[in-house]
Design brief:
By secondary structure, the protein is α/β, with parallel strands linked by helices. The protein contains eleven helices and eleven strands. It binds adenosine monophosphate.
């Protein structure tokens, strides 16, 4: 598959890279890291990265604004996106061909070529693996690409703490840090938070509840968001904070927007099926969902309790 992806890329003059909505470091890292590799390796090709910019990730890369006509005769590569509904910028539909590269469970195997490896910690890890495989055919990896892929791996492994981290992940990360990018600055950009976010973290720690059977929940209403002047996307980033609580098994952070977005995490029981039931999806230990109101949020919590009970 890696060779077939390389061959298809060679055939196109224009390549447009997409990733999922509400991007995280791995979405940006895999999308823009691959773009950097392609720009360095094929200077004559036109390579674009599209999607809505995330304010909290602008330090990683800036994205391109391009007209619809750009997709004509173009190859679209979608990274880190399990299903077509979540692809940011639906104009991928205008492309001639499509490649999917991802590490989420392959519920929606879209694309003319589809490379999914759920054993990878991150899609950025897969992009580096693809680079290593095709290196002998002339692929180049710049320090900018290395920084992006490293950020994607660090982001999706929770700084190498999550069980998805393998010896291969650590090996790749150790190879990437040999490139000449400023790792300390990158870490600071990834983990320094503005004061309102730190205060919101205090709110989360003060107001979470352990409901039953190691199930934790925190509800962040629109009022609270306004009080702290944060977006629902900002709130989402605090979900891992609750992982530090002794005895917690599965937990959900709810943040109210037009809908209520839900970030789900687990230390054991697989939560992605519950996420799918509530208009979402993801990995067994890290998923996301959406519920229309607080009553449905409570139903989701009840499902987490049942799941936790059946995994005692
Ligand atoms: P998050 O809680 O946003 O960090 O997401 C955790 C994981 O679940 C990521 O791998 C996301 O790609 C996935 N995910 C989040 N929201 C959704 C959704 N609405 N549909 C499918 N997958 C999702």
């Amino acid at each position: 598959m890696k060779d077939r992806i390389f061959e298809l890329i060679q055939q196109y003059e224009t390549i447009i890279l997409h990733r999922h909505e509400r991007p995280d470091e791995d979405a940006y890292g895999s999308q823009c890291g691959l773009a950097e590799i392609l720009r360095a390796s094929f200077p004559k090709k036109k390579i674009f990265c599209v999607g809505k910019e995330a304010e909290s990730l602008v330090y990683l890369a800036s994205l391109d604004e391009i007209p619809d006509a750009s997709w004509e005769n173009a190859l679209a590569i979608i990274t880190d996106t399990a299903n077509t509904e979540r692809i940011d910028d639906k104009r991928y539909l205008l492309a001639s061909q499509l490649i999917k590269i991802d590490h989420h469970p392959n519920r929606d195997p879209y694309g003319d070529l589809c490379w999914v490896d759920t054993t990878a910690s991150s899609t950025s890890e897969l992009i580096y693996e693809w680079y290593l495989h095709c290196q002998s055919q002339g692929l180049l990896l710049t320090k900018e690409a290395a920084a992006l892929l490293y950020a994607g791996i660090v982001g999706d492994t929770g700084r190498f703490l999550y069980p998805s981290t393998t010896s291969k992940t650590l090996q790749y990360a150790s190879e990437l840090v040999n490139y000449d990018f400023d790792r300390t600055t990158l870490h600071n950009q990834m983990y320094e938070e503005p004061i309102n976010m730190v205060k919101l973290q205090g709110y989360v720690l003060e107001h979470f509840e352990i409901v039953e059977n190691g199930v934790g929940k925190i509800f962040i209403t629109k009022d609270v968001r306004e009080q702290f002047q944060v977006s629902a996307a900002d709130c989402s980033r605090l979900v891992s904070v609750l992982g530090a609580i002794k005895g917690i098994k599965v937990w959900a952070l709810f943040s109210e927007d037009e809908q209520i977005r839900v970030n789900l995490r687990s230390k054991g029981p697989a939560i992605n099926q519950i996420a799918e039931k509530y208009n979402g999806g993801g990995h067994p230990l890290a998923s996301g969902a959406n519920v229309p109101d607080w009553e449905t949020a409570e139903l989701l919590v009840q499902d987490l309790i049942k799941l936790s009970e059946s995994n005692k």
